[in-house]
């Protein structure tokens, strides 16, 4: 079995595309709320196109991606790289002292409103972060905050803004997760988030009204009001970050009573189209309902609750399973919006690469691209035919990847982990065009093909 792949002019991880195609966004109804989601560097991005933000080269993006993957792996180093035990809960995971990841790997942006009256904020989303934050006044550019495309959020101009006192339970909660940063002279709670590349953001832990779309508002939304930022990872034109991780501070946990601790997103096939982020689970039935999803159990770690894992069991190439032993994937697979390339245990990657190469004999091999070593020369071609690739998860869920989720930059968009004991990662390239459902409350992942 093969699938056709149309090649963009650059055919790279960051394609040069000038026009934004139309997008279909689910209606906000039946207990859900949806917003448009776009690639940070594409023509659909809500960020100012004249802001001057440079898109990274493929090599730089892969370098940053490896930093993120290495950082997350170190967070679980206390369990020898294993994400979850047989019961889905690991008792051997050590809690890190540095939180977050490399901020400059995050690729997908949404627009929200913050405060009363609402001020538009262009924020990246991250399932590997819990604390949300935006740049706030006073925060002069270029130091100690990065340059920004839109208006800084001014807490003094919002009638609903409030800073948490150091004695508040919300402030104590930051201390439990290692993100507390003491009190200021007015006894206001201070936070700090340190990222794996050395960047950090500090300021006042606060609350205000978050406007998602239309009349969908989250009152008392907790976030960091950033007054100082350090590091190259902060050198972009977005306004902040929305954390979709599994710990108490994330937007998912904060809105659990309203949206059932469930969310989904669809990452577009290319930067020239848009996807969506939805809070709340789809209703059962036809259309985009829950019955349309291929589902698999979600695994969690009690001591590092930010991350979400699934149990990958096999891979199919060209419609034929590789026949990998489930023990190959015993450490679990992180499902992450911020990691670009999928990582597999070396034994699984070697089998995938071999089977894929066998189906690509008509194309000349090319030099490796960073961490990607199964590459082909597509020079002069507008379209190529590649073997299908499907991920087989526990419970029988089979996820047939979109062509754009198989090859990127002329290379097979997979890489090996450091060793066979380390957990793998399902990166955002492989998630393209799927609605990926995180039913955190129900402990289930869902995958719906062709959603955007």
From TrEMBL:
Residues 51-60 have a biased composition (Basic and acidic residues). Residues 25-60 are annotated as: Disordered. CDD domains: cnd41_like. Residues 25-38 have a biased composition (Low complexity). Residues 108-448 form the Peptidase A1 domain. Pfam families: TAXi_C, TAXi_N. SUPFAM superfamilies: Acid proteases (SSF50630). The active site is at 126, 336. Keywords: Aspartyl protease, Disulfide bond, Hydrolase, Protease, Signal. It comes from the Eukaryota. GO terms for molecular function: aspartic-type endopeptidase activity. GO terms for biological process: proteolysis. InterPro entries: Aspartic_peptidase_A1 (IPR001461), Aspartic_peptidase_AS (IPR001969), CND41-like (IPR033873), PEPTIDASE_A1 (IPR033121), Peptidase_aspartic_dom_sf (IPR021109), TAXi_C (IPR032799), TAXi_N (IPR032861). PANTHER family: ASPARTYL PROTEASES, OS06G0119600 PROTEIN. Belongs to the peptidase A1 family. This is Peptidase A1 domain-containing protein.
């Amino acid at each position: 079995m093969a699938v056709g792949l149309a090649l963009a002019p650059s055919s790279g991880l960051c394609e040069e595309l000038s026009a934004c195609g139309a997008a279909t966004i689910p209606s906000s109804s039946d207990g859900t709320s949806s917003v448009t989601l776009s690639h940070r560097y594409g023509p659909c991005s809500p960020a100012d196109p004249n802001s001057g933000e440079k898109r990274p080269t493929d090599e730089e993006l892969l370098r940053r991606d490896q930093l993120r993957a290495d950082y997350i792996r170190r967070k679980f180093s206390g369990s020898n790289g294993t994400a979850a035990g047989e019961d889905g809960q690991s008792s051997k995971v050590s809690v890190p002292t540095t939180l977050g990841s490399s901020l400059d790997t995050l690729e997908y942006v949404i627009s929200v409103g913050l405060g009363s009256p609402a001020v538009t904020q262009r924020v990246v989303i991250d399932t590997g972060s819990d604390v949300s934050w935006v740049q706030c006044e006073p925060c002069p550019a270029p130091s100690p905050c990065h340059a920004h495309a839109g208006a800084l959020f001014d807490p003094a101009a919002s009638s609903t803004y409030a800073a948490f006192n150091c004695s508040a339970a919300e402030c104590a909660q930051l201390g439990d997760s290692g993100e507390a940063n003491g009190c200021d002279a007015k006894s206001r709670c201070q936070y700090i988030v340190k990222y794996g590349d050395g960047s950090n953001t500090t300021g006042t832990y606060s609350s205000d009204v978050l406007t998602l779309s239309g009349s969908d508002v989250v009152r008392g939304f907790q976030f960091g009001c950033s007054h100082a930022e350090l590091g190259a990872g902060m050198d972009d034109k977005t306004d902040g970050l929305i954390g979709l991780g599994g710990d108490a501070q994330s937007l998912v946990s904060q809105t659990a009573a309203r949206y059932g601790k469930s969310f989904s997103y669809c990452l577009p096939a290319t930067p020239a189209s848009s996807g969506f982020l939805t809070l709340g689970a789809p209703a059962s039935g036809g259309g985009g309902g829950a019955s349309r999803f291929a589902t698999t159990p979600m695994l969690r770690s009690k001591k590092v609750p930010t991350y979400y894992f699934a149990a990958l069991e096999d891979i199919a190439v060209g419609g034929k399973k590789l026949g990998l032993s489930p023990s190959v994937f015993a450490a679990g697979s992180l499902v992450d919006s911020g990691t670009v390339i999928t990582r597999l245990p070396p034994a699984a990657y070697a089998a995938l690469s071999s089977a894929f190469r066998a189906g690509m004999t008509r194309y000349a091999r090319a030099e490796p691209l960073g961490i990607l070593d199964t590459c082909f020369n597509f020079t002069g071609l507008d379209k190529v035919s590649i073997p299908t690739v499907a991920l087989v998860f526990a419970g029988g869920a089979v996820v047939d990847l979109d062509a754009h989720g198989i090859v990127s930059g002329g290379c097979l968009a997979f890489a090996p982990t450091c060793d066979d004991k380390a957990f793998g990662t399902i990166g955002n390239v492989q998630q393209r065009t799927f609605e990926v459902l995180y039913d955190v409350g129900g402990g289930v992942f869902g995958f719906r093909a062709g959603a955007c």
